[in-house]
Amino acid sequence: MRKRLSYTLVFALLVLAWALPTLIQAAPATPTPNQVDAVAKELWCPLCNGVRLDNCDLQACVQMKQVIAQKLAAGESTEQIRTYFVQQYGDVVTGVPANQGFNLVAWYLPVVGAVVGLGILAYLVYTYVYIRRRPAPGAAGAGEPGSEAGTKDEYLRRVDEELKKYD
Predict the structure, then answer these.
(1) How far is CA 98 from CA 40, 54, 160, in A?
(2) Per-residue 3-state assignment (H helix, E strand, C coil) for 142-159
(3) Are 40 and 53 in contact (CB under 8 A)?
(4) Radius of gyration from C-alpha coordinates of the chain
(5) Could you report the average pLDDT of every consecutive run of 10 residues in the chain (167 residues)?
(6) First to last CA, the chain
(7) 52 - beta bridge partners?
(8) CATH code for residues 29-96
């Protein structure tokens, strides 16, 4: 009887050792809060503007985090979870506008604005450096009656004459 018990025990251990990897994979693993937050950081709250899902305290966001935990426990990837939430709530949960249709304006308007702004800046620098710094053709030189320096000298001369009258 003892021999039969030991054979049965050895057989049970062999069956358990053979089935253990399958049992471990089949058991749903509970994801850690860090794993849930890693996925939640890539999603945005559909109700709050500009708030990531991992920072939002609304009940809807708490429920969304629970759904993330369930899907992670089921073995779904981050991309599958993101796709699920986009189907449920739209592109607003990705925090990035879709690269199609009217949303292309949000992608290309900043680039066009930067190019136009740089063009205006280059034009202003050009006009300041090359046009404003050099005298116009035919303009009087410094110290001549038609120039700004000549006008200042004339003004100072007249002031001196007026002051001499009162001395």
Answers:
(1) 19, 22, 74
(2) CCCCCCHHHHHHHHHHHH
(3) yes
(4) 40
(5) 71 70 62 84 84 84 88 88 88 77 82 95 89 60 55 85 87
(6) 142
(7) 44
(8) 1.10.8.640
Domain spans, the chain: 29-96, 99-134, 143-167
Residue 25's pLDDT is what?
60
Residues 72 and 36: beta-carbon distance below 8 Å: yes
Q: Token pair of 31, please? A: 């994801």
The pLDDT assigned to 142 comes to 47
- For residues 44 and 94, the answer to whether their CB atoms sit within 8 Å is yes
Position 143 scores a pLDDT of 47
0.70 exceeded by the pTM?
A: no
Q: Could you write out the DSSP letters of every residue in 59-92? A: HHHHHHHHHHHHHHHTT--HHHHHHHHHHHH-GG
